[in-house]
Write a structure and sequence with these properties.
By secondary structure, the chain is mainly alpha-helical. It is built from 15 helices and no strands. InterPro entries: Hip_N (IPR034649), STI1/HOP_DP (IPR041243), STI1_HS-bd (IPR006636), TPR-like_helical_dom_sf (IPR011990), TPR_rpt (IPR019734).
Length: about 400
Amino acid sequence: MDASKLNQLRHFVEQCKADPSILSDPSLSFFRDYLESLGAKLPTSAFKDSNTKSGSYVVDESDEDMADNEGTQVNVEEEEEEEDEIVESDIELEGEIVEPDHDPPQKMGDPSIEVTEENRDASQTAKAKAIEAISEDKLEEAIEHLTEAILLNPTSAIMYGTRATVYIKMKKPNAAIRDADAALEINPDSAKGYKSRGIARAMLGQWEEAAKDLHLASKLDYDEEINAVLKKVEPNAHKIEEHRRKYDRLRKEREDKKIERERRRRRAEAQAAYEKAKKQEQSSSGQKSSGMPGGSPGGMPGGFPGGVPGGFPGGMPGAGGFPGGMPGGVPGNVDFSKILNDPELMAAFSDPDVMAALQDVMKNPANLAKHQSNPKVAPIIAKMMGKFGGPK
């Protein structure tokens, strides 16, 4: 390792001995973790929160640096500016709907009972009386006769379907839907069941469901009434479908833009960190200081912004190093600019999951194995090992 860097490190350790509160700086959390992993006992002052960094190792920013940072911040804020929430417009639909009925459910028969021939005949007689009542517009009376017919023969889908049509005439769509459902449960191919339910759903403004039922009814047993209702229902159903597709597309586009903004923000932050570290390296390369202003890129705080992110593999000198890699710590001939110039690594260092994994490996190199299966972490560790000259 470079002698000047070792001298800087030695001076930093002396400062920490004289004033352990230096270690309370959040950017040195990785260093505290490293010391504790070696069994070191740190004083409580090393863990106190500090809103200001020690002037002994913080590089004062020049006006040019501050201007660059402000420019970066503005750009990031512009990227993060959220679009307005999507507010769906109203759909102009045609056709009249009725208020839903909330009467108690009508009487239903028990389809599991055995129906005798006598009951079948009686059921048909009751149905005939209901048809006659319907022709005379005596709808309540028709409902009574049809209910009697259903109780006598609860296995007849036609009886339920007929009573559903009467409820439609009475503008009771919910009651009609209950009877239509019962008819379809007995006979899934009941055209009258689909027709009645489709008309009832249209009365409630359930246009898409109504269109589906009426199309099925038309396939099973086409008639002009179904066609007439479909002409009123289908335009509304199409408008609703197009409206839904439009706003689904807008929401997806908005989400895609949000993802892209986040990706560009992280890239900008990584680039800004690299530029800052590069400037600090250039400003410190021609100076000989007894403190630690500047440091080496990726070294102690002041070089890489915020300190080494999670600790690079290899640890501090003499710390065992990365398994199979650098037993004596980070080799002195490592070109840290390769790391700072790598956008993928710079972006990865802002990922909490990656940083946690790197810290875990730094504390205990044996933990490397448990991160090899992590698709997010493993490639970053392998890439770093390659740049440090370790095995891939």
